[in-house]
Amino acid sequence: MIRLFLAVILFFGREAFCFTPQTRGVLSLQPSSYETYSRDDGKLQMFFADESSTTESKEKGDTANVSGDAIGIGTPAVELVVADSEGFLNAVGSFLVDSFWLSSDHHQLGNDTDITNEARMRLVIEQCADLQEKYGERMGKRLSKTSVVGALDKETKELIGVVTLKETILINSDVLDPEKAELIAQNAVASLGPKQRREYKNAPLHTIATELLSSNTKAVCVLSNLAVSRKARRRGVGSVLCEEIEALAQDWGYDAVHLLVESENSSARQLYENKLGYKKLCMNKAVPALRVDPETGSFQEIQADTLVLFKRL
């Protein structure tokens, strides 16, 4: 019943997920419940609607106003939103299906790019469920930090770009799923004596990895799910999102951002390596990767050579 309700909401909101202040509903963001921050000489300054502040920390639910002058000629003025609410993640899930999975032949099986509404909706439901599980609100505290950043057109409030950041563990050349990383960290703490367990009970993943795990293991921040709508591409939105992710990583105490990219994905590699300054750390052969089957509206696993890239901050 819940998934059916989600499907109905997303289907009727398919044309454009606009975050308008006047609209109340599952897919709207209410400015009264969101803080905002602006850029000033490269630094982030917090401010509320009715008062100014010089606090530099960013929390989920914040939005940032970034003008075209700040990020290059021709770049649309955008508002950056950091949130983990169900409505926001549902909008992001639908956006990723249209602007990431279905926007490039690289991510699809076969040459037939046509997809029915029903097949698309199956993809949206699965993508939204995945985002809710990995980035959504939890009853308990996550051991590993996560963040979803959306770029909204400042005038229309339409979602035009997204990117995610997650904290996980790198073992040699393997970037683990955050869930597996949390399990390893929890087991490391559980193996300690009573006194040490209390000491590390609420320790962040970075501390546990540094102090309790082996020397070939370290905590890292991983950028993923970067996508920009077709009409906003080649205008600097992707670069703005990546810069925000790098700032978040620094806020979390990291001096580098990592990402995974398939070796044959030339357009993505050109962006990351040539434009954004990411360097190759290693290559992993035949790593599980996902493709979309437009006919069935499902995600299929394949094997692909994958690069681990990183950028010092």
From TrEMBL:
Domain of life: Eukaryota
GO molecular function, one term: N-acetyltransferase activity
UniProt keywords, alphabetically: Signal
Keyword Signal: yes
Extent of the signal sequence: 1-18
GO cellular component, one term: NatA complex
Record-level GO BP terms: mitotic sister chromatid cohesion
Entry annotated with the keyword Signal: yes
Domain N-acetyltransferase, chain residue ranges per copy: 154-313
InterPro entries associated with the record: GNAT_dom (IPR000182), N-term/lysine_N-AcTrnsfr (IPR051556)
Protein name: Acetyltransferase GNAT domain containing protein
Protein species of origin: Nitzschia inconspicua
Top-level taxonomy: Eukaryota, Sar, Stramenopiles, Ochrophyta, Bacillariophyta
